[in-house]
Write a structure and sequence with these properties.
131 residues; alpha+beta; Cytidine Deaminase, domain 2; 4 helices; binds tetrahydrodeoxyuridine; zinc; hydrolase; Cyt/Deoxycyt_deaminase; Cytidine deaminase
């Protein structure tokens, strides 16, 4: 699959980041199993712990519109290093992954790497454990 469109969506979302405290802008975009795309940015808060990461903003938008399985998620943070999803976002991705999710770590639409989610989050606690 060509991830350029997804990365461009994440880059566009990054422009909307609300990050007055860290100044670290992040954008994310997901493509769901129904092929719909959703994007999101990080949204910080004066009470720092209330901050929402870009990945979760995008995922929650998708899930609240009925799409439940993430085929791939593109993440664009700074342009020097690839930005990996934080631990909380990995747990949220786990919830909406069917085991085949790809994580696209991008600096821009021409410079990105693809990781399988299972590579980034082995041994996850998941709904399978709640039996
Ligand atoms: N952040 C994200 O949005 N996604 C990540 O994967 C890493 C961190 C945000 C949270 C906070 O607004 C800022 O980046 C600095 O941690």
């Amino acid at each position: 699959m060509n991830y350029k469109k997804l990365i461009l969506k994440a880059m566009e979302a990054r422009e909307k980041a609300y990050a007055p405290y860290s100044k670290f802008k992040v954008g994310a975009a997901v493509i769901m199993d129904d092929d719909k795309l959703y994007s999101g940015c990080n949204i910080e808060n004066a009470s720092y712990g209330a901050t929402n990461c870009a990945e979760r903003t995008a995922i929650f938008k998708a899930v609240s519109e009925e799409s439940k399985i993430i085929k791939a998620i593109a993440i664009v943070g700074d342009t020097v290093n690839y930005t990996y999803p934080c631990g909380i976002c990995r747990q949220v991705i786990e919830e909406f992954s069917d085991g085949n999710t790809n994580i696209i770590l991008a600096k821009n639409e021409n410079d990105y790497i693809i990781k399988s989610f299972s590579q980034l989050f082995p041994g996850a606690f998941s709904k399978k454990d709640l039996i």
